[in-house]
Amino acid sequence: MSKKFNNVDSIIFDLDGTLWDSRKEVASAWTEVIRTYNYERKEVTFQEVNDLMGKTIDEIEDILFPNLPKKKRTEILYKCGENEISYLSKHGAKLFDNLEDTLDKLSKKYRLFIVSNCQPGYIEVFLNYYNLNKYFEDHECPKSPEIVKSDNIKLIQKRNKLGDANATKDAGLEFVFASYGFGNVDKYQYKIEKIEDLLEL
Prior knowledge:
This protein is α/β, with parallel strands linked by helices. The protein is built from nine helices and seven strands; from the N terminus they run ββααααβαβαβααββα. It is elongated, with a radius of gyration of 18 Å. The termini are close together.
């Protein structure tokens, strides 16, 4: 963390593996649904959910239900998503340590946003269950399988007038890798080992 941001006025967060860890709860919610079907798969494990995080809906369908026709796999995953929202709204999930204190401090200096590859309602459950709406100005998730995360980042930028368009195009967005989460990346400008490291960065 020797380098520091220059001229930053806003931060766009990912959700899973950055702000909270819902893998255990998602696995339980999806397993409840899958067991109601006469299908060879009877559960989704914690590790499988871990490996699916960040993937698109179509990719998840292909991995979990490769032997089912498209219409059926879409139906099952849709019901998994519905139950996931219901389950999380009742139980919540694991927030990373010192999250709210860090968001509170960051929000006093920066505009905060969330963009995630998730179904509609998922970000809202996170915000509502822990009463975190007050820290974020806006959020976005894919409205269709064709929309990828980069499209939604651009939508957040445009909708909230974040930065100069030409400057953003020329410089690109600076990416901070949250190594405390459960993903891994090869290319990043900065790395943090805990959420509060953002305060120093």
